[in-house]
Amino acid sequence: MYVTDSTFLKVIPYYKQGMRTLKATVFCTLLITSFAYGQEKRGRARDFGVTIGILPTGSNNAITDVAGVKVGHTTINEGQNIRTGVTAIFPHAGNLFQEKVPAAVYVGNGFGKMMGISQIEELGNIETPILLTNTLNAPKVADALIDYMLALPGNEQVRSVNSVVGETNDGGLNDIRGRHVHAEHVQQALATAASGPVTEGNVGAGTGTECLGYKGGIGTASRKLPASKGGYTVGVLVQTNFGGVLDINGAPVGRELQNFYMKDPKGNYKADGSCMIIIATDAPLSARNLKRLAKRSYIAFGNVGSFSSNGSGDYSIAFSTTPQNRIPHNSNTIVRVTEELTNDAMSPLFMAVWEATEEAILNSMFMAQDSQGVAGNTLKALPIQKTIEILKKYNALHHDRLPKAEQQ
């Protein structure tokens, strides 16, 4: 069986179209999890008082808060051994090959199989949706993405497509050698991509992933700059599958829970993995400043306790959706006039991407659920109530509330 976001929304019989708000989505997610898994209720980090940074979120606290960005998932849970999927991110709703967007890639650690990186580096743009999946399925997913692009109206004469596919290795829970993501799964994720709330945790490309000793998955978050700093939005989506020692707002959660790298003398803790970080913004940025933006996301990677192990493939892809800066495939002029923020104006965006990436990583863990997969392997989700107790101990909750002295 495989499911998409649209399938998720049909689980609750009384889920009305008019209730498609973030609050309703969170409620339904908690309800479904409680009934289906018989474990403690899950929720996003902010639902439990975990706030990162100082900037406000967008309306959905998701990458889709950047206007035009859409996300789709296909989740594949079959039998005892298949726990995988694919996630699609669209920078805009048009034909991306004909209207490319400025983009850049930052490689934190290159032990990965990301596809399409060299052309992004060379030309500074992307021309397809970004797809995420598992390591051994990356070539198959790229092939299906090429089919999708060639079939779009207007692309009848296209003879070269730079498909962009990121991956992490979900072989701990998934029969990864079976390469179970097929063309129909890719097409389904692309066809069902939508704006608005984004499902998180054990979905799409995050179905079989592991993060910081617990179940990882898909997470997302966003930040909105004040009008005085441009009013721009930065949205982030992550596929988390890496190791380390979990920290939340400075609280040593992994250490307190006695679940961290190098503690286990038998070497059962998995430090290797990978992380894909997808960054969208409506700020008018060149490929050069998009790369600078992508670099700053890596600050969050260390903040949550990762050290980028030898076998971790960690990539940040950043793109700008500013319509006037799109790059036409065919142009009648040899000069392209664009808008670009000054270097000095980048600092607020750097803060925004750090905050959104860190919260997205935590959301991927807070929303994940216990999972059993190939060879009977079991991966527990982050124990939320124990985590909250630790965060209270270290005064790491509700950082969005001013101290009493400042409120007066």
TrEMBL record:
Keywords: Aminopeptidase, Hydrolase, Protease
Origin superkingdom: Bacteria
SUPFAM superfamilies for the chain: DmpA/ArgJ-like
InterPro entries referenced in this protein's UniProt entry, alphabetically: ArgJ-like_dom_sf, Peptidase_S58_DmpA
One annotated GO molecular function: aminopeptidase activity
Pfam families, A to Z: Peptidase_S58
Keyword Acetylation assigned: no
Family to which this protein belongs: Belongs to the peptidase S58 family.
Protein known as: L-aminopeptidase DmpA. Serine peptidase. MEROPS family S58
Native species: Sphingobacterium psychroaquaticum
